[in-house]
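TODO from last week: model M15 family metallopeptidase.
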Amino acid sequence: MISNEEWLGISHSQLIPLDERHQLHHAVITPFKTMQIAAKSDGIDCQLVSSYRSFERQLSIWNRKWAGETTLYDARGNRLNHTELTADEKIEAILSWSALPGGSRHHWGTDFDVYDRHGVENRNWNFELIVPEYEQNGPCYELACWLNENAGKYGFIRPFKQYTGGVAKEPWHLSHSPTASRYEEARNIHALKKVLTESDISGKDAILIRLEELYDRYVLNRGKL
C-alpha cells in the first residue's frame, strides 16, 4: 500500500540511484535500462533529463516560477509576461508545465523525462525541453519517433501525450505504468490539501480556494471541456 507521504513526495523508501544525479523506483530501473540499451542498438540515444523529485524540490520550482525567476509559458508554449498575470493566470501558467508540490508524478520515481543528448550536443543546441525539440527538425525527433514505436514494449506510457486543457503536451515524459498505477490509486485531494496548507507555497490562498478544480484538471489531468 502506498502511503500519503510516498505519493506526495515527502518520503520514499523505494528509490535506487541510477547515477550521481538521478534516482528511480527500484521496479523501474531494469525496464528503463533495458529500453535504453534497445534504443542504443537502434542508434538512438535516450538519456534522463529529470527523474525523482521530492516535495521540497517541487516546492522550490513552484515558488521560483511564482516570483518570476523562471520564464512562464502558456499551454501552447507561448512566453508570458509574469508582471501582467493575475494570481489565477499564474497558477494556470505554472500548472501547464510544472505540477503542484505533492501533485507531481515525479514524486514517485516511476516517471521521468528523456532526451537525445548526442543529438543536442552534436548540433550544439541550446536545449530547453520544449515540444519543437521533439518534432521534425528538432534534436530529439528521432528519439520521439522511436519511443512512439517501442516505449510500450517496456511498460512505459506518455501520460501527457496530448493536451486536453490540463497539463501541456510533454513528449519527453515517460511513466512506468505498472508501477505508477499504484501511486495513481493512492492520490487523494484531502492529503494534498493538508500538505499544501502546511507548506510555504507562494499563492497559497489562491490555490486552496480552487484546489478541487485544480486537482481534477491538472493533478489527475482530466483537463476541461
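Done. The chain has one domain: 4-219.
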